[in-house]
Each structure stands twice: as C-alpha cells, then as structure tokens.
What does this fold into?
Amino acid sequence: MSNAAVQSKPAHLKVLAIIVLAFGGLFAVSGAATWMLVAGNLAAEKVTVADDAAAFAGELVDTPWEAWAQADIINKHALEGSGGKTYAELDREDPARATVMNGSFLRASLFTSVLAFGVSLLVFGLGVVCIVAGEALRRIAVRLDAPVAAKPVVQNA
It folds into this structure.
C-alpha cells in the first residue's frame, strides 16, 4: 500500500464522521420535532381520558400512553353498548352499529398517533446512535492523523 493511500484514510474517516454526525443531528431533531408536533396536535383536540379508564383518568391526551388508555376505554364503552359485539359482528340494522363504528374510527386515530409517537422515538434514537458513532469515528480519525514517533532504525553489524 502506498504512503499516499495510508495518509488519505484519516481524511476519508473524517468526512464519514461528519456525514454520520450530520445525519445523527438531523434524525434527532426530526424525531423530537415530530414527537412535539403529534403531542401538540393531540392536545389541540382537547380530548381527556375518560374517568373510568384504567390509567390516566381525566388527563389531557397528549402522550402515547394517554392515547392508548383512551383508545382502550373507547373500546370498552363500544363493546358495552353493543352487547360485546364488534362492528363487523353487528347486523346492518342494529342501532348500535353507528356508535361502534365511530368508536372504531376514534380508536384507529388514537392508535395512529401512538404509532407516530413510536416512529418519532425510533428516529430520535437512531439520531443519538449516529451522533455517538460519528463522534467515535471522528476521534479515531484524529488519532490516525496524529504524528507517530519515528522508530529508530537498527542496523545489522
């Protein structure tokens, strides 16, 4: 391997480190921004978790846990109103069908927000991993770029 090829490795590693760090920052900011956007939109709806929910009763729905709790209690109420039958099991003429259908739509919307929270957390986590990996690459590149003390040449007598 030529001396030029060895000397260019730290430069390539530095570029790779910068790219990984940039993507890490982008992912972390995007994930956090998405989380806040979803939370803000949920809060703007001013939905509170039902008082008879298993958890978070009376809380404003603006986190994935509260959205899950509200979706769960909506399902419980819908099943109580339909005699334990789901939307698909109800007869077309059953008056409870419209209520159960609305409950299903509300639950789907809440579960979509839970999914959005999860994806935003995943993207944020990937950003943190990229930042850590990029910093590790940068430190390796700096060490490779540091001058190495010359070894004395031993001559055979």
